[in-house]
Amino acid sequence: MSADPARCTACRLCETRTQVVLPDGAAGGLLAVGEAPGRDEDLQGVGFVGRAGRTLDGVLLELGLHRADYARTNVVRCRPPENRKPRRDEVQACSGWLQGAVNALQPRVILAVGQSAAEQLLTLPRQPYLEFVVATLQGSEPLQRYGGVSVVPMPHTSPLAWNRRRADGTALRDIGARAAAQAVSVLAAAGAPARR
Ligand code: SF4
Asked: Which residues form the Uracil-DNA glycosylase-like domain (predicted)?
């Protein structure tokens, strides 16, 4: 791993990225962890600025948390070609950077945005990810920790995932909003100001 995070060449994603997307945002509060930068993030060098990121911004803003109030990073910091899922060795190569971001940002709660982030941060049971998210919301699955920080799982905020419904008709966007509210509640309970 390079000493300079912006020049990392530890996995093949360095060959196709435009630039490394580094963590950004406020330390000491909520840290959103996504799967990987997409096209907009790759071009701008800023995380969570595409449609999925803007959706998350909107959900958190509804809860009183402005974009400047929380931090963002991804499981891998370079965009996979064609937005494919990051491969296991790429995730492994970037895991030190993720741990370093958590150490540096000292969040009081982590919001795992989508299954890929949750897989890296948590030990997932053998059940569909969405059922795990709902069980966590209902309290039948306890909140797990990553680096000592509580992690709340939520559905991915990409349009494809966000606009789906469960078999019982519940909209994933509603489950996502409830998960985000759970994370903000954990944040408030930890003594951090959740609102401006
Ligand atoms: S994805 Fe992570 S490990 Fe791979 S080159 Fe980018 S910063 Fe380095």
From this structure: 22-176
